[in-house]
Structures are given as C-alpha cells and as structure tokens.
Design a protein that fits this description.
- 38% of the residues lie in helices and 19% in strands.
- By secondary structure, it is of the alpha/beta class.
- The strands form four sheets. Strands 1-2-3-4-5-6-7-8 form an eight-stranded parallel β-barrel, surrounded by eight helices. The chain has a three-stranded antiparallel β-sheet with strand order 9-10-11. Strands 13-14-15 form a three-stranded antiparallel β-sheet.
- α7 links the parallel β5 (169-177) and β6.
Length: 566
C-alpha cells in the first residue's frame, strides 16, 4: 500500500457547520421511500431484467409497501420505454403509487420522456446534471455558470412539457449529480436556481435530491452537507429533501441515517443495496434499523425469507448470510455463551410475560421477519454449548433435559460436530441424542413387568414385581420387592446371575407433549463404585414403563454387566 499519497480529499465541507443533528439520538419518523431497484439496481445487473420480469418485480415492490418507484430512463432505452408504456396502458400502477422517471437536461430526451408518460395518473420527472468540480474540470470542461445554465434550461423545459399534460399529476425532482464532490455554495446556488423556476407550493412540492453519487467522506460530513442545504434552500417548506447514498466507503446506511437526522425527508435506495460499484443504500437495513428502535418503517418486511428468495430469483445475486436482517445467519448463535444467554432471556420473557423485546444478542424478534428460533437462532457446531443443545431438544422435540445431564449431552454432540467438521441440524442432534440415551435395550431388556402393592408389615418394601428380562440373549423370570417400582425392578435385576455395579442418583419425568394422550419421558441417573455417572432416558405411553426403560437404558450405557462366577 505505497500509493496512498496520491489520494486527496475530494469533498467540500459547508461554509457553515452547525451540526444540530448531533443532538438527536434516533430517527423518529420513517422517511418517504423510493425504490430505484428497477433503474440503479437493474442497470447494475450482469443480465438486466426482461420486460415480464420488470413487471413482476414492480408488483413485488408494490406488495412491500413502496409508494414511489423509479421505473427507469424511458428516453434512453427501448426496453425501459416499453416497460413504462406497459405499466400505463395495462393500468398496472395502483392509485396510491407514484412512478418516477429519469431524464437528462436535453430537450429531445425530455420530450421523449413526456411522450412515454402520456396517460399516467401520477409521476415524478427526475431531472439531473452533474455538478462536481472533477466533472466540470475533466468531463464537461465548463464553468459554474455554464453548468447552471444546463440545469435552468432543463427546469424550464419540464415546466413547458408538464403544461401539455394537465390530466396528469406530475411533480418534479432535481439532482445535482455528484453532489458530494461539489462545492457546497455552488450546489446550493444551482438547486435554488431550479427551485425558483419550478416555484413549489404546498400542493405541488419539489424534490431536491442530494446524492452521494460517489461516497467520498465520513458519514458526519455528508450529514453536515445535508444540514447546510436544508438550512439555506429557497422555499424550504415546500421542498422534499431526498437522499441517494451510494456505498463506495461501506457507509451508505450511516449516510442515510445521519442525513435524515440532518433534514432529509426521503430516501432513494434498493433492496439489499444492489447498485453500481459497491451498490446503493440498502433500504431494508435502514428501515429495519428504525423498526428495531420502535419506529414504524411503513414497509412490510415481515416475511424476509420470501423477500430474499424473490430478490435472488430476479437479480441472480446472492444475499450474504451475514447481510443485516435478511441473511440466513444473522440471528444464528453458534457460541455456547450466546446460546445460553438467548435461551435464558427467552425463558425470562415468557415467565414474566414481558412485551418489550430485550433478549440478549437478538436486536429484534426473529419471528417479526418470518424466521424461527429452532432453525434460525440456536445453531449447533463445535463452538456451541450445553444450553443451546438443550434448547433445541426442548423446543423442537419436547425433552426437558435435567440440568445435571446437559453438560454430558453437550460434550457428546459437540464432539461429533467437531470430528465431522460441520454444523449439525436439529434432526441430526435428535438422532445422536436418541441413539445414545433413549430406550437402549442391549444387552439388558425387560420385556414384561407386573407390579403388586403390598403392606409394609408383610414385606421390606411397598411394591412387588415380577419381571421377564433378557440379558445377553438369556431369558429370566425373577421377582423382588422394593420401596417403589424402580427399586423393586432394580432388586429383581440383581437376582439374575449377573453382576451390576450401580446406585440411584436422581430420577425425573415429564410429558413429551401437551395433550392428555402424550407419551411419558423419564430420566434416570446412576453412579458406579468409582463415582462415574450414567444417564438413561425411557419413553413409553405409560410413565411406569417409561421409568423402567430409563433405568435399563442407564444400565446398558454403563456397559459393566458381567456374569457372576459359579
């Protein structure tokens, strides 16, 4: 990186820099949104959309709630001209939606633009010409006065052609293209010249669009530029200040947010930031950032997976898995500490019936954008913890794993993930868990058990049991008593010609499902003479048989059964 000396600051700070916007800590109201996916977005695609695709994508944007949609540059392309005419002639533009078209400040282009708009109910005609120092010096080789004359000529022509279409509601927008590379006094002058020609009113406001055509500064500089224009533009009450940030510095979202604080009323951008070079501002991120602060974004992103699928299908671009709000992994927690905090946070919210969202590590509720906790939030790999694995087994399959068992299950699952070098799905986790702990019937299998309650003065225990048991393929019928069912079964097993080395540590049970016909789940922990712990899980329609299955599973996992010597 030896050539940094050749780069110089190419932007211009305003002569007055009050920075009043720094006293605001959040955006209070959603701006007017204008999607430019069908212009800036489409022209940046390797293969631009066909006419049918444009129509379907337009309808998709309408379904998301956009009320202003830029549909193209009709005078510059036959495809875009035909698209606009199709929207108008087939009455595809809803009454509450305004289309926007782009035009340069050249009469034949402006004339064709208005021809393309014939019959439209409402439209914005967006006039632009480049104003930056670099463009004036290197491309146009014109003075400031000559550049102003281009804008003024175009503004007058728009007035002229609008007068020929009294049946249509047409409003105007002006962009000093490459605004961020323009001296602020000159940007102000040229915008005011246009405003004075258009004479905006409360019922016919003018849009002044101030684009970061190339992002050249830190976001606070762009905000200061917007504030300067906001404070000094003519007829401000009848203007709509629009922002159009590009993402060359990776700060388009910050530019938009600070620009709104500094006086911006409107944002032009695209879904997921598609656009030339590094793209336009991502409207989804800006809108969802507001949503996360409790502000209605006035766009509908409640089914984010469907939005991602539609966007990828039409653009042939992939949404990055870490793309804010829309990426597949943006809510995913692989880290054990994160998983534990999320699981505990959700339990706390449920126990306390909280309405305000304050879950650790989740800035918004994934459900609000169509995502699911089990598949999208707690994700298991070798970095995961016991809490996350237990959460998946409980949420997806109903197993309330005892706290003391969670660490063992966690190490088991993480070890398999680590050795396989991959993430494990909930289904794979369950299969590992099931195979290791649930109804393990080899080499010991109790095939039948009959209980009889007895008075304590007739027996040492309160329960008698007759069991049929198979051990290593050998069948036995044995009876024993105990102070409970499990104790009786355990005593019966010890009457077989096999040695067992265990004592009970803990027992718990619960229903797997909520209905009255649900299966029962029992957990048994045993310890051997060396102090090692063994867990077993039993599942059955009958809770008694579930507890027996859990005992047998724990014994079989111990793998210490051996025949007695004779």
């Amino acid at each position: 990186m030896k050539n940094y000396e050749k780069y110089q600051i190419g932007y211009f700070m305003p002569p007055v820099n009050k920075m009043k916007w720094t006293k605001k800590d959040h955006i209070e109201t959603a701006p007017i949104w204008c999607s430019v996916d069908l212009r800036d977005g489409n022209q940046a695609l390797v293969v631009p959309m066909s006419l049918d695709e444009k129509i379907e994508f337009f309808q998709f944007l309408v379904s998301l709630g956009f009320k202003e949609i830029e549909v193209g540059f009709p005078a510059a392309s036959k495809t875009e001209y035909t698209f606009l005419r199709t929207l108008i002639e087939k009455n595809l533009i809803p009454d509450d939606v305004t289309i926007q078209v782009l035009t340069q400040s050249r009469e034949h282009i402006i004339k064709k633009t208005f021809e393309a708009l014939q019959g439209v109910k409402k439209a914005i005609v967006h006039l632009y010409n480049s104003t930056s120092f670099a463009q004036r010096q290197q491309v146009f080789k014109k003075t400031q006065d000559e550049i102003v004359e281009i804008a003024v000529t175009g503004a007058k022509l728009l007035n002229k052609y609008r007068a020929t279409m009294p049946e249509s509601e047409i409003s105007f927008e002006y962009s000093p293209e490459s605004f961020t590379g323009t001296e602020m006094e000159f940007a102000l002058r040229i915008c005011n010249e246009v405003i004075d020609i258009w004479k905006p009113t409360p019922s016919n406001k003018v849009i002044i669009n101030l684009p970061a055509t190339v992002s050249m500064s830190m976001p606070h500089v762009y905000a200061s530029q917007i504030e300067y224009m906001n404070d000094h533009l003519h007829n401000r009450d009848n203007l709509i200040i629009s922002l159009h940030p590009h993402n060359d510095r990776g700060t388009a979202v910050a530019d938009a947010e600070l620009g709104i604080l500094a006086g911006g009323d409107r944002v032009e951008g695209t879904l997921f930031g598609n656009g030339e070079r590094t793209g336009n501002v991502d409207i989804i991120t800006v809108a969802m950032n507001m949503y996360a602060h409790g502000v209605n974004p006035k766009l509908d992103f409640s089914d984010m997976p469907a939005i991602v699928e539609t966007y990828e299908r039409f653009t042939d671009l992939a949404v990055h898995p870490r793309q804010p709000y829309g990426g597949q992994l943006v809510f995913a927690a692989f880290s054990g500490s994160h998983q534990d905090a999320i699981a505990k946070g959700m339990a706390y919210h449920e126990e306390n019936n909280l309405n305000q969202w304050t879950i650790p590590y989740l800035p918004i509720d994934p459900h609000d954008v169509g995502r699911k906790y089990d598949a999208d939030v707690i994700r298991i790999n070798s970095q995961s913890g016991k809490g996350g694995i237990a959460y998946i087994l409980e949420q997806s399959y109903g197993y309330a794993i005892p706290q003391k068992m969670r660490e063992e299950v966690g190490y088991l699952v993480k070890g398999i993930s680590d050795n396989a070098h991959k993430e494990l799905t909930p289904e794979e986790i369950y299969e590992i868990f099931k195979k290791e702990y649930i109804n393990v019937f080899e080499p010991v299998d109790i095939t039948d058990a009959t209980f009889k309650k007895v008075s304590t003065y007739k027996s040492e225990g309160g329960m008698l049991v007759d069991i049929s048991v198979t051990i290593d393929g050998n069948e036995f019928e044995v009876s024993a008593s105990g102070n409970g069912r499990l104790d009786a079964v355990s005593n019966a097993l010890k009457k077989t010609p096999y040695a067992f080395d265990y004592t009970f540590v803990t027992y718990s049970e619960h229903a797997l499902e909520a209905d009255s016909n649900s299966r029962a789940c029992a957990y048994v922990a045993l310890t051997d003479s060396s102090g090692e712990l063994y867990w077993g899980i039993g599942i059955h329609d009958d809770i008694i048989l579930a507890s027996i299955n859990a005992l047998v599973s724990a014994i079989n996992r111990q793998k210490k059964i051996r025949p007695l010597t004779t």
